């Protein structure tokens, strides 16, 4: 390969020189048309011609909440009544039995809705009332946070 055999690199876009005389094709008004605000100076792209701008029309919202915050799913005592009492009830078992969805974007909390009659071993965070009802039926609650 020799320098004489190399082809020249041509630019994809050649900028037009505006305001360089009538014969250039972009002389006199330089492609800005006749009179008016846009012909005379710069205006911001978000300017809407004196109308109230969209940024001021929308309500003022600071941050709009924490998107990374996890939600809480509740499990009731009546749902636990259906599960075999010999197993340790934790998040993995609840996912396996499809009591809670398989998504991991939430916390699970046990609430005292319904009654429980059999002793169960639970590894979940529970409300005070739910914990009291489970211990009354000779079960155990370990807080799993």
Question: What this model shows, in words?
Answer:
With 145 residues, this protein is of the alpha/beta class. It has a domain at 71-142: Ribosomal Protein L15, Chain: K, domain 2. The protein has helices at 37-40, 54-57, 77-80, 91-96, 128-136, and strands at 71-76, 88-89, 106-111, 121-123, 125-126, 140-142. The strands form two sheets. A three-stranded parallel β-sheet has the order 1-3-5. A three-stranded parallel β-sheet has the order 2-4-6. The chain is elongated, with a radius of gyration of 35 Å. The chain starts with 36 loop residues before the first helix and ends with a strand. The mean pLDDT is 86.
In short:
With 145 residues, this protein is of the alpha/beta class. It is 19% helix and 15% strand.
């Amino acid at each position: 390969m020799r320098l004489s055999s190399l082809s020249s690199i041509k630019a994809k876009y050649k900028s037009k020189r505006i305001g360089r005389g009538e014969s250039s094709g972009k002389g006199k008004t330089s492609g800005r048309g006749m009179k008016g605000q846009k012909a005379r100076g710069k205006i911001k792209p978000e300017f809407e011609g004196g109308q109230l701008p969209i940024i001021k029309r929308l309500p003022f919202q600071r941050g709009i909440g924490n998107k990374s915050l996890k939600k809480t799913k509740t499990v009731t005592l009546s749902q636990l009544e259906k599960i075999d009492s010999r197993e340790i009830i934790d998040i993995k078992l609840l996912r396996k039995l499809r009591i809670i969805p398989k998504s991991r974007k939430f916390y699970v909390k046990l609430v005292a809705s319904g009654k429980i009659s059999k002793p169960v071993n639970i590894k979940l965070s529970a409300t005070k009332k739910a914990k009291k009802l489970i211990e009354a039926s000779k079960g155990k609650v370990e807080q799993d946070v």
